[in-house]
Amino acid sequence: MEEFLRDAEVFLDYSDLKILRAVSRDETAATPILKIFENPENAGKYLVILKERPKALFVVAKLANRISKYFKGDEGRIIYNLFLKAVRMLKDHEDSWIKNAVFLLLKETIERKLKEGDFEEAASLVSEFKEYGFKNYFKKILLVSSELAEKGDFERAVSIINRLGPSSTVSELKTQIYLEWGKKLIELKDYHSAEIQLKEALRYASSHDTLSEIHLTLSTIYNRLGKFENAYNQILKIEPENPVEEIKLLREAAKILIEWGNKLEKEDKDEALDKYNQAYQLALRIGDTSLSKKAVERARKVVSETEEK
Are 298 and 258 a contacting pair, CB within 8 Å? Predict the structure, then answer.
């Protein structure tokens, strides 16, 4: 045990080392601690034995946490998981010293993970131990995710905030990230992928303005893909909140109907005329003479071609 204490001294604070030295005098505590670090992957049974010795269990958690950063890959993950197992056994402990000690240890760990760029693990800790009130770290992770999305790393941004667990703020941020992701894909002309991201944005959207923007953007995608019925239906899903918004939506609908009619001219001239008529009526309703004129001209062309035949 003395050799173990000398090795542990490098990683522990003086107060923690005092606890470890005190419990090491008791074989029923000292032996499990040694066994835990001899084989951390199968340490669960020894952690159970230490459950009635919370200060000893805390020192195990702290020691595992601090040495884990010196290991990589599977070995590092095994030791870090040892820290998680031990601290989970302590999270509901009523003793004020334990509560404060666990809080400080978690705070230290979250800060280290953020510094190392392991934002996913930092988010997981903030979510799992939210009862400790890590609100500043919650906001920090939201900011990190937003910055990653700004750089175009949308997939990782979403992966990180997904670990924060459900909340209205998380849902709102996910909506905006998926929306920006969709817009970026439209710029790249990857319309099918853009559609997928925008439909994800719809799952989390709640505000009228955001829903309207998503439906309008989806309408743009369908319009470019030549799916005019889908594009038109997206416009119909938006409930205008004021006259200005209504005019804007009706104008977009009229434009889609004209393009839809243009496509139908080769397939069904009667249907094409119907779309031009609908576009004309909408254009008249909002007083857009340019659009109404365009609809009439297209309709006259169809009629002229029909009469010639």
Answer: yes
The pLDDT of residue 309 is 55
**Which tokens is 261 given?**
């009619």
Count the neighbouring beta carbons within 10 Å of the beta carbon of residue 185.
20
Of the chain, the end-to-end C-alpha distance in Å amounts to: 102
User: Which two three-digit tokens encode residue 298?
Assistant: 């297209």
Number of domains present in the structure of the chain:
3
Query: How many secondary structure helices (H) and strands (E) does the chain include?
Result: 17, 0
Domain boundary among the residues 90, 121, 153 is at 90
The closest alpha carbon to 165, from 111, 123, 207, belongs to 123
CA dist., res. 57 & res. 72, Å (int): 24
**Which of the listed residues 222, 238, 254 is the one where a domain comes to its end?**
238
**pTM of the entire structure?**
0.87
Identify the pLDDT of residue 236.
Answer: 95
Give CA separation, 164 vs 121, 161, 262, in Å: 10, 5, 48
With a cut of 70, list the residues of the chain below it in pLDDT: 307-309
Q: Under a CB-based contact definition with an 8 Å cutoff, are residues 58 and 98 in contact?
A: yes
